[in-house]
Design goal:
The protein folds into three domains: about 120 residues, Rossmann fold (3-Layer(aba) Sandwich), CATH 3.40.50; about 120 residues, NadA-like (Rossmann fold), CATH 3.40.50; about 80 residues, Rossmann fold (3-Layer(aba) Sandwich), CATH 3.40.50. The protein contains 15 helices and 13 strands. The strands form three sheets. The protein has a five-stranded parallel β-sheet with strand order 6-5-7-9-8, sandwiched between helices. The termini are far apart.
Length: about 350
């Protein structure tokens, strides 16, 4: 039997984005998930990159990494189902160790998280003794455990400036580091993976970066922006801070996924080009039917794409896949994540 209420809600929101037959099928799945959620005393957190039918049906909370970290810390339910990638589910477990945290996909990795290891961080700390380490939240728990404080794309500059030091190690996103260096007025260097015992004292640096990149955001180019503006001169271009500095500089606005959502909602322009994961463009389009999202972004994150309504249902049915973080790592990572949340709470 079709879940009429859920179907009607999805149809109203997504009729211009998702085919009707797909909406009917996914409404049934969503209705089953909603029942299971109540039975299991579960909360569902979903990142802005989730596909539209999931994004607008089953989550209790949606948002970017920072928002969802806050929700994970505050939720009262026994079970957290995290519709995102593994490092996000790990962060929820770091903040709520007493709860069962489920990731609806066996892997759901991340190119950024895979770009650096805890040993890499330890080597950097040995090369630059006493220099505080800021680690992007898009990292695994053992890397978070080696740093002093985490950050998100929305608060990276604020976190760096909160340390009050001349020099900071900023890991692992190369482009976010460069964009943060520009925003904070710091000169950045990138040590090689096979690092020497020390950096030449003649080298001027205040930010020490790493060559990690998001496999989605690194694909956007200035040419993409120029082509869009050539055809649509009135378009407003929004770029995620994980895009290259050249792309960010050529855009009208750069910010986290939540900041992008807010920007489109508050501005009156008719057309927007959203340079981030393409499912989010569909989600923004559904929320702003009077505004046009240019369909020039077709880059789907293969890891976010692993999370489906079917797997979200099965996570609740079969307790899969349970996220565990060793307690010694969790305790150290907790301090870093907690400091990030406390910095953001002051905004």
């Amino acid at each position: 039997m079709i879940a009429n209420t859920t179907y009607a809600r999805l149809k109203e929101k997504l009729s211009e984005v998702v085919p009707d037959a797909e909406l009917r099928y996914k409404a049934e799945l969503a209705d089953e998930i909603l029942r299971l959620k109540e039975e299991r005393n579960a909360v569902i957190l979903a990142h802005n990159y989730m596909e539209p039918a999931l994004f607008y049906s089953v989550p209790d909370f949606v948002g970017d990494s920072l928002e969802l970290s806050r929700k994970a810390a505050d939720c009262e339910q026994d079970v957290i189902v995290f519709c995102g990638v593994r490092f996000m589910a790990e962060t929820a477990k770091i903040l709520s160790p007493q709860k069962t945290v489920l990731l609806p996909a066996k892997k759901a990795g991340c190119s950024l998280a895979a770009s650096i290891t805890a040993e890499d961080v330890r080597q950097l700390k040995a090369q630059f003794p006493g220099v505080p380490v800021v680690t992007y939240v898009n990292t695994y728990a053992d890397v978070k455990a080696e740093c002093d404080i985490c950050c998100t794309s929305s608060n990276a500059a604020a976190v760096v400036e909160s340390l009050g030091t001349d020099t900071v190690i900023f890991l692992p996103d190369e482009y976010l580091a460069k964009n943060t260096a520009k925003e904070t007025g710091k000169h950045i260097i990138f040590p090689t993976r096979r690092m020497p015992n020390q950096v030449d004292g003649s080298v001027d640096y205040q930010l020490i970066g790493w060559h990690g990149r998001c496999e989605v955001h690194e694909q956007f180019t200035v040419e993409d922006i120029e082509n869009a503006r050539r055809q649509f001169p009135d378009v407003l271009v929004l770029a995620h801070p994980e895009c290259s500095p050249e792309v960010v500089e050529a855009s009208d606005f750069s910010g986290s996924t939540t900041a992008m959502v807010k920007y489109v909602k508050e501005h009156k322009a008719e057309r927007y080009l959203i340079l981030t994961e393409c499912a989010m463009g569909d989600n923004i389009a559904a929320e702003n039917p009077d505004k046009e999202m240019l369909r020039m972004c077709s880059i789907r994150c293969p890891h976010m794409n692993e999370i489906t309504l079917e797997d979200t249902r099965d996570a609740l049915l079969y307790d899969r896949y349970v996220i565990e973080v060793p307690e010694d790592i969790r305790e150290r990572a907790y301090r870093s994540v907690k400091r990030m949340i406390e910095i953001s709470a002051k905004d």
